[in-house]
């Protein structure tokens, strides 16, 4: 079979142990994103199978209709808002999904960004490389308030880490989040507004859904302290378009640490955050570590093996009548 893996940004999928499951096939990997739809079609048009790495490629109807040989999309991860499942079903393209969703790696990154930003780690490390000596004062974590917006699996680990650093954890979110907070001995904010007003560090861990797009608005950000840090390792779309940039320019909050962007990948330093010394940016690293990759890609590659052997698949579109 011809298998195409678009957007292997790290250029390392073939270094995973689980790659042995598909190595004997005709596998083509691309590191750089396609320039446009036509370029993407050129890359994928001969593929029997495409390995979709999370949400790096939009599998729109316009794309899928130009891939007559495609029989299977093996999704790395459990779901993707970038796949037109109805079009896949109509065209006879099976979409096999993963089953795991580990919170560990993204929680670790959120904590790393909190420490790095509050203590000016990245800023001063770069200055030292340029031959400069420290010229900023940073903010202590112990005794400060860590706001957690959404105490799910990831938020829970971040809260535990914050507590371990001596931070006072303050939670807001759905009823389930507030119940978890009470059980863990964390304080609950009286309202969303209070969470933004009181937090010295505010970390977003809300799942992106139809009702959470833009759940953080300009009015929320305006309530934050000028010394506060907002951390977003979840989804850029949780914050209303343009609201964070405008808020940072106004000085409330004073700092941000961001791992997700509305349009990815961000290349050629083409984002206003990258020119702002009070913003720490990372390139969607939340899930990108060896253990996670071995787990998620193993599940995707196992589905390819099952497909080849005619075994049942873990389908996101179980009603599909697959192409022969």
Broad CATH class of the largest domain: Alpha Beta
Main sheet: strands, sense, barrel: 7 strands, parallel
CATH architecture grouping of the largest domain: 3-Layer(aba) Sandwich
Summed up, the domain count is 2
Provide the succession of SSEs.
EEHEHEHEHHEHEHEHEHEHEEH
At CATH level 3, the topology of the largest domain is: Rossmann fold
Helices and strands, with pairings:
Blueprint: E1 2-5, E2 26-29, H1 37-44, E3 49-53, H2 61-64, E4 72-76, H3 85-91, E5 94-96, H4 104-118, H5 121-129, E6 145-149, H6 153-164, E7 168-172, H7 175-184, E8 187-188, H8 192-198, E9 201-204, H9 218-222, E10 229-232, H10 243-250, E11 255-258, E12 279-281, H11 290-308
Parallel strand pairs: 1-2, 1-3, 3-4, 4-5, 6-7, 6-9, 7-8, 9-10, 10-11, 11-12
Helix pairs in contact: 4-6
Description of the structure:
Helix 4 (104-118) crosses helix 6. This protein has 324 residues and is an alpha/beta fold. The two termini are 13 Å apart. The chain has helices spanning 37-44, 61-64, 85-91, 104-118, 121-129, 153-164, 175-184, 192-198, 218-222, 243-250, 290-308; strands at residues 2-5, 26-29, 49-53, 72-76, 94-96, 145-149, 168-172, 187-188, 201-204, 229-232, 255-258, 279-281. It is globular, with a radius of gyration of 22 Å. The protein has two domains: 2-101 and 289-308, 3-Layer(aba) Sandwich (Rossmann fold), CATH 3.40.50; 104-281, Rossmann fold (3-Layer(aba) Sandwich), CATH 3.40.50.720. Strands 8-7-6-9-10-11-12 form a seven-stranded parallel β-sheet, sandwiched between helices. Strands 2-1-3-4-5 form a five-stranded parallel β-sheet, with helices on both faces. Helix 3 (85-91) links the parallel strand 4 and strand 5 (94-96).
């Amino acid at each position: 079979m011809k298998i195409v893996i678009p957007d292997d940004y790290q250029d390392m999928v073939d270094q995973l142990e689980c790659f042995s499951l598909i190595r004997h096939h005709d596998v083509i990997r691309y590191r750089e994103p396609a320039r446009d739809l036509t370029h993407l079609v050129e890359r994928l048009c001969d593929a029997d199978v495409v390995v979709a790495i999370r949400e790096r490629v939009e599998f729109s109807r316009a794309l899928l209709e130009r891939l007559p040989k495609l029989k299977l999309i093996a999704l790395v991860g459990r779901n993707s808002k970038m796949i037109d499942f109805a079009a896949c079903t109509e065209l006879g393209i099976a979409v096999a999904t993963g089953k795991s969703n580990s919170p560990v790696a993204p929680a670790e990154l959120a904590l790393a960004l909190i420490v790095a930003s509050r203590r000016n780690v990245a800023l001063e490390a770069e200055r030292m490389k340029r031959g400069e000596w420290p010229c900023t004062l940073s903010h202590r974590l112990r005794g400060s308030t860590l706001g957690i917006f959404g105490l799910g699996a990831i938020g829970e680990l971040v809260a535990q880490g914050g507590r371990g650093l001596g931070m006072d954890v303050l939670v807001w979110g759905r009823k389930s989040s507030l119940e978890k907070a009470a059980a863990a001995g964390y304080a609950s904010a009286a309202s969303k507004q209070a969470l933004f007003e009181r937090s010295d560090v505010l970390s977003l861990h809300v799942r992106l859904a139809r009702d959470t797009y833009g759940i953080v608005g300009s009015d929320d950000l305006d309530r934050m302290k000028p010394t506060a840090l907002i951390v977003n390792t979840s989804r850029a779309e949780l914050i209303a378009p343009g609201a964070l940039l405008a808020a940072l320019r106004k000085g409330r909050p004073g700092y941000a640490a961001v791992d997700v962007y509305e349009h990815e990948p961000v290349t050629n330093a083409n984002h206003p955050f990258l020119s702002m010394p009070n913003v720490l940016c990372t390139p969607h690293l939340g899930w990108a570590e060896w253990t996670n990759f071995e787990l998620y890609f193993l599940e995707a590659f196992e589905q390819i093996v099952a497909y080849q052997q005619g075994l049942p698949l873990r389908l996101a579109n179980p009603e599909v009548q697959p192409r022969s």
